[in-house]
Amino acid sequence: MTNKVKTNSIPQESKQKRSEKTKETSVRWTSFRLFPIWLRLVIVLLLLFIAACTGLMIGYGIIGDGEPMDALKWETWQHILDIVNGKE
């Protein structure tokens, strides 16, 4: 009884041909960004600012029974800060 070790069924020549093909056809991919990273950050910060203003207007005007544009006035915030600091 002899034990024979099976070798790969693919001959060495076809492996070499395949590796040569992959070397020749390798394409170097470059990353191309449609928007630069700094522009993305500016857009995100702008959207956050718009969302915060919209939330303030909804909370103050609709939920709080006030005028929605009053939420963006400095006098409203000064009054709130006076209440928080105990000046009134």
Ordered list of secondary-structure elements with their pairings:
Layout: H1 12-24, H2 37-63, H3 74-85
Could you walk me through the main structural features you see in this protein, from its secondary elements to its overall organization?
There is one protein chain. With about 90 residues, the chain is mainly alpha-helical. Helices cover about 60% and strands about 0% of the residues. The protein has three helices and no strands. The chain has helices at about 10-25, 35-65, 75-85. It is rod-shaped, with a radius of gyration of 34 Å. It starts with 11 loop residues before the first helix and ends with a helix.
Provide key terms for this protein:
88 residues; mainly alpha; 3 helices; rod-shaped
Short recap of the structure:
With 88 residues, the protein is mainly α. It has helices spanning 12-24, 37-63, 74-85. It is 59% helix and 0% strand.
Silhouette: rod-shaped
Low-confidence stretches: none
Radius of gyration: 34 Å
First-residue to last-residue Cα separation: 103 Å
Helix content: 55-70%
By DSSP (H or I, 4+ residues per run), the number of helices equals 3
Strand content: under 5%
Spell the H/E element sequence: HHH
Question: Structural class from helices and strands?
Answer: mainly alpha
- What integer is the average pLDDT? 83
Strand tally: 0
Largest sheet: none
